[in-house]
Amino acid sequence: MTVAAVEAGVPPLVEARTVVEGFHEMIRRKTEGDIVPWIERGRGSLVASSANGIARDVAAVRVAIVTSWSNGQTEGQIIKLKLVKRQMYGGGN
What we know:
By secondary structure, this protein is mainly α.
């Protein structure tokens, strides 16, 4: 019931959600051909800053969508290392 009230009160939020869902669908299906229409649709919604950022380097985003390579494991290790260093030097407070 609360979601329906928010959606009724803020229609641009509904549009933004569908735009984001469209991007997730591209990633899941690995269909980079839909990126340009997505950017145009995104520029007219609440996620315009993300769409503009993707448009700045659309070639890299296309490659990221279709390849199976990921640096998630590396990023996770870096985050863990930074956390430990902050704790050691008192920066985590």
